[in-house]
Amino acid sequence: MIPFVSSFIKMAILDVLTYPDPRLRKQADPVESVDDVVRQLVDDMAETMYAAPGIGLAAVQVNVPKRVIVIDISEDQSDLKVFINPEITEKSGEQESEEGCLSVPGVYAPVTRANSIVVNALDRNGTEFKLESTGMLAVCIQHEVDHLDGKVFVDYLSRLKQERIRKKLSKQARRQPTPLPSPAPVM
Ligand code: NI
Fold it and tell me: N or C: more exposed end of the chain, with fewer CB within 10 A?
């Protein structure tokens, strides 16, 4: 409607789907080529993640069923990592940590995941890279790759807890903002 203005808008904050929205269950498709459309998506996702604030976001969460993830676990939002078509090729060890999710506002729970992983992906320029990670970064990558496969962290909890969370979030007419400071990383 306002083409003059829109040409100056570089980034946008996208709407994040809230559990139990069925669109969070979509299996995301691989990105065929990393073009300007994908780069715009990456930039908008980063903006959305930083604004929330969160440390990770998968494209499925903003209703784009493509295999695209952004992560930044730094304290000062200075270390954006982009994973396009990520594949976790190795997993070892175990760690349990408290997780939160931008799609499950206000809910935090411990989840057990691999301690150390190797991931192959394309970056924002479409260049292949391989990353070994442990600790929080490894947790976040596993959490986001789950989103690309239609999986949410509450799936790891007991049926009773899942039911409680569904009821709590379904009752909310509007999305609750994430409390600050959040008791666990939100991704
Ligand atoms: Ni999440």
Answer: N
∠ Cα 161 164 167 (to 5°):
150
Q: State the amino acid at position 163 in one-letter form.
A: E
Which residues are catalytically annotated? 144
Q: Report CA(80)–ligand 1 centroid distance (Å).
A: 16
Overall residue count recorded for the chain in this entry:
187
Cβ partners under 8 Å of residue 94, min gap 6: 112, 113, 114, 115
Rounded Cα distance between 30 and 14, Å, is 21
Q: Token pair for residue 8?
A: 């100056």
Residue 8 has pLDDT above 80, yes or no: no
Tokens, residue 123: 């970056």
Instruction: Using a pLDDT cut of 90, give the percent of the chain over it.
Output: 83
